[in-house]
Write a structure and sequence with these properties.
Strand content: 15-25%
Shape: globular
Largest sheet: 4 strands, antiparallel
Number of strands: 10
Structural class: alpha+beta
Order of helices and strands: EHEEEEEEEEHHHEH
Helix content: 10-25%
Strand order of the largest sheet: 2-9-6-7
Number of helices: 5
Oligomer: single chain
Length: about 160
């Protein structure tokens, strides 16, 4: 880790946007790609399987390639993945996107898979049977992040 003090303490909503692009009828979504919580594996940042919009009813959320699908219900299961293509997902997820110039999508994903994020997200989960995280509570959580060049250095070291 850096000792030069260049890391900044930021609120989550300063580095990340919650994209709420709702689709009321999944069959009208013009996609054949649906991702529900059941399609995400704990601690696996890739989407390994999916369903069809024809299999589901009710309101869903649109997502684009590169956005992060974050399972806001039962977060203790650690369901989070980076979308590799566009589609629709369960409304029990948040569709998150890094704010350009603040954090890279790869570093955001690593941050969200870390222990600090996990513990803060668990702390703001509400409800007993199926604890759920609200964006307004997650948005206020603070994290320390390095500047973009340092994020890229860290990423290059983790991908060797």
């Amino acid at each position: 880790m850096s000792s030069n003090g260049s890391w900044q303490k930021v609120r989550f909503d300063q580095i990340c946007k919650n994209i709420s692009n709702r689709i009321d009828d999944p069959k009208q979504a013009d996609t054949d790609y649906y991702v529900g919580l059941e399609h995400l594996d704990s601690e696996e940042p890739k989407i390994l399987r999916h369903g069809s919009p024809n299999d589901v009813g009710a309101t869903k959320l649109r997502f684009k390639s590169g956005q992060i699908l974050f399972g806001k219900r039962r977060w203790y299961q650690r369901k989070l993945a980076i979308a590799q293509r566009e589609g629709i997902c369960s409304a029990h997820m948040m569709v998150l996107e890094p704010i350009e110039g603040k954090i890279t999508k790869e570093f955001l994903s690593i941050l969200m898979q870390g222990e600090d994020f996990f513990e803060k997200a668990i702390r703001v989960s509400a409800g007993s049977l199926s604890p759920t995280i609200k964006w307004k509570d997650l948005a206020k959580q603070e994290f320390r992040i390095p500047p973009i060049p340092e994020q890229e250095t860290i990423l290059s070291l983790t991908h060797q």
